[in-house]
Amino acid sequence: AINILAGGILEQFVPAAVDNYALLVAILVAVNLSLFSQPSVLDGWVMRLKSQGAHINYGLTRGAGSLAYAITSIIAGIVLSRLGLPAMFPMLLGFVSVAAVFVLLVDEKPVSLPETVTAIEAEGLATPIYRNAKYLVFVLLSTVLFVGVSASLTFYPLLLQDAGGGTADLGLALGLCALSEFPVMLLSNRLLRRFRDTTLLLAAMGFYVLRIVLFFAIKDADGLVWAQLTNSITYGIFLPTSVHYISRITPVRMRATALSLASSMYMGLGGFLGSLSGGFIIKSLGIRPLFGMAAALAAVIAAAFGAVLLLSKGNGSDLFTKEKKSSTISHN
After folding, report:
1. Residues forming beta bridges with residue 117, ordered by sequence position
2. Measured distance CA(255)–CA(257) in Å, rounded
3. How far apart are CA 221 and CA 52, in angstroms?
4. In the 8-state DSSP scheme, what is residue 55?
């Protein structure tokens, strides 16, 4: 709650710091460390409660967040077009204040640990994160993937503007983007029961390639707005599946750390590198070439992940095998 509120307060100083680049960067770094680091912390919180026997549907939890984000994005687009950018900052402070209050109201009742854990979880209990090959390979590939993904998402507003779109179009696009996640998030538990988590991750990476290619190919604003519906099969699949996968292959007591570190790597470092490199590419080559290069990078990473899966399967390694539900041992 303190970090959420602190991030909202720090954002209020952004308008005053626009003429001081060093100060602006310092504020945005602090905001990222405080406010934008919280989703992965919340993921770890939810997964820890689930591991302790609490009946929580992760897909429903994140789906509700996606629905709220969609509604907020549409409202923000209207506010931005009517009142201008300065009105967004106090609105953000109001939302984070409400969020902080809700966090404080959560009653985290103690629950008992499950009596059994799976064999692969037991292996994870004795494997530090820095020696966990499954974890390291996934985080590395995902970080590079999100360099391209983040570049395309960061500069999507410029692409939309270049196609003739306005602030209302951007608000609608972001609303559709978030709203499209909701049904997929709700179905995430069923998808994970039906398919291997690694198969879903590979599919999500492939869909990211498709999404960026659509951004690259579509030339009109309306088409770019509706292309945001592909977020349902990209982030809508990638997020719950990556949380499930990381929780499956890492020690129970290190899950929150593993999730936070992974998110900070591909969302944080990958996002930073994507935004930085994207700015240079746009300045040198223009907006469209950026999206073409981002799609190519995503395609390379999807192919690399698929190759790792095939090699792992071919040589009998358990690097990416699915958890065997029938194999359990006593947790005590």
Report:
1. 329
2. 5
3. 47
4. -
Q: 10 Å Cβ neighbour count for 2?
A: 10
Give me the chain's average pLDDT, please. 81
Tokens of 59: 């897909």
Q: What is the DSSP string of 59-88?
A: HHHHHHHHHHHHHHHHHHHHHHHHH-GGGH
Provide the phi-psi class of 53: left if phi over 0, else alpha when psi is between -120 and 50, else beta. Answer: left
Residue 328 forms beta bridges with which residues?
A: 118
pLDDT (tens digit per residue) in 118-149? 444 444 445 677 788 889 999 999 999 999 99
Alpha carbon distance 255, 260 (integer Å): 8
Q: Is residue 243 over pLDDT 50?
A: yes
Alpha-carbon Rg of the chain, whole angstroms? 20
For 239, residues 6+ apart whose C-beta sits below 8 A from its C-beta are 62, 181, 185
Q: Is 193 helix (H, G, I), strand (E, B) or coil?
A: helix
Q: Please, which residues have CB within 8 angstroms of residue 269's CB and are 6 or more apart in sequence?
A: 143
Residue 114 is predicted with a pLDDT of 44
- pLDDT confidence tier of residue 331, bands split at 50, 70 and 90: very low
Please report which helix (H) or strand (E) contains residue 139, including its range.
helix 133-154
Nearest to 252 by CA among 47, 25, 36: 47
pLDDT tens string 177-202: 888 888 888 888 899 999 999 999 99
Residue 42: exposure state from Cβ atoms within 10 A (0-12, 13-18, ≥19): middle
Find the length of the chain.
Answer: 332
Judge whether 201 and 266 are in contact, CB under 8 Å.
no
So what's the pLDDT on residue 51?
A: 62
pLDDT score, position 325: 41
